[in-house]
Amino acid sequence: DTAVSQTPKYLVTQMGNDKSIKCEQNLGHDTMYWYKQDSKKFLKIMFSYNNKELIINETVPNRFSPKSPDKAHLNLHINSLELGDSAVYFCASSQGENYGYTFGSGTRLTVV
Amino acid sequence: GENVEQHPSTLSVQEGDSAVIKCTYSDSASNYFPWYKQELGKRPQLIIDIRSNVGEKKDQRIAVTLNKTAKHFSLHITETQPEDSAVYFCAATPGSNYQLIWGAGTKLIIKP
Questions:
Q1: In 3-state terms, what secondary structure has residue A84?
Q2: Residue A54: in which H helix or E strand, if any?
Q3: In this predicted structure, what is the pLDDT of residue B95?
Q4: How does residue B53 score in pLDDT terms, banded at 50, 70 and 90?
Q5: What's phi and psi for B83, nearest 5 deg?
Q6: Judging by DSSP bridges, how do beta strands B10-14 and B106-111 pair with one another?
Q7: Per the count of CB atoms within 10 A, which of A17, A65, B11, B36 is most buried?
Q8: pLDDT per position as a tens digit, A1-34
Q9: Cβ contact (<8 Å) for A106 and B43?
Q10: Which residue of A has its CA nearest to B92?
Q11: B49/A100 CB distance under 8 A
Q12: Interface of A with B (CB under 8 A)
């Protein structure tokens, strides 16, 4: 009964490949997020969806494309992976404005 | 837009002593201030939060104080224990667009 689950937990892939990370929440939250955490630990917002609608689309390369088939799922597809994409990617969800986030366990992406 | 600054970046305290981490924010419209703890290799987890209509909130050994006039808020941990070692993040939300603005994190080290 994990609240926010992400798969896979680890992803090692070669430069130029395309990969996807999946996220699902069973909390009934309306809002979901993708964050990137680099080696310096800074949490950088990438995207946010509220009820399947894209509401935050920060300056990220257009090789990154989110998809929300329903409000419980938010997937992240990355095309043409680069070395600089190596990081931990966290999915999160919240009830909405002014509520805390529940994070998934993270996906450690390593591009070689 | 909102900007959140967090100090110090690293804090080392003796086990049993208190630790204080401070954050300042720029947008006076911000009204929700959560704190997250991230242990090594784990997800960030919400440990305490405060809303702008409250000056202080406590939960066992942790407390958060908010000074709206000075636009700063602080996390206080008393009687620190080894399991308090982690990176702590503060955040603020301007109350629109569902986005939290994050501090850069504080690495708390508890010395035995």
A1: helix
A2: strand A53-57
A3: 64
A4: confident
A5: -70, -5
A6: parallel
A7: B36
A8: 679 999 999 999 999 999 999 999 999 999 999 9
A9: yes
A10: A98
A11: yes
A12: 31, 41-43, 45, 48, 50, 55-56, 90, 94, 96-106
Three-class SS string for chain B?
CCCEEEECCEEEEECCCCEEEEEEECCCCCCEEEEEEECCCCCCEEEEEEECCCCEEEECCEEEEEECCCCEEEEEECCCCHHHCEEEEEEEECCCCCCCEECCCEEEEEEC
Residue whose structure tokens are 């504080």: B106
Give the tokens for residue A23: 């996220």
Backbone angles phi, psi at A83, to 5 degrees: -55, -40
Residue A108 C-beta-side C-alpha neighbours within 13 Å: 6
Contact list, B45 vs chain A (CB under 8 Å)? 103
List of residues 6+ apart from B71 with CB closer than 8 A: B24, B25, B26, B28, B30
Query: Among B38, B43, B98, whose Cβ lies nearest the Cβ of A96?
Result: B98
| pLDDT tens-digit series, residues B70-110 | 999 999 999 999 999 999 999 998 766 668 899 999 999 99
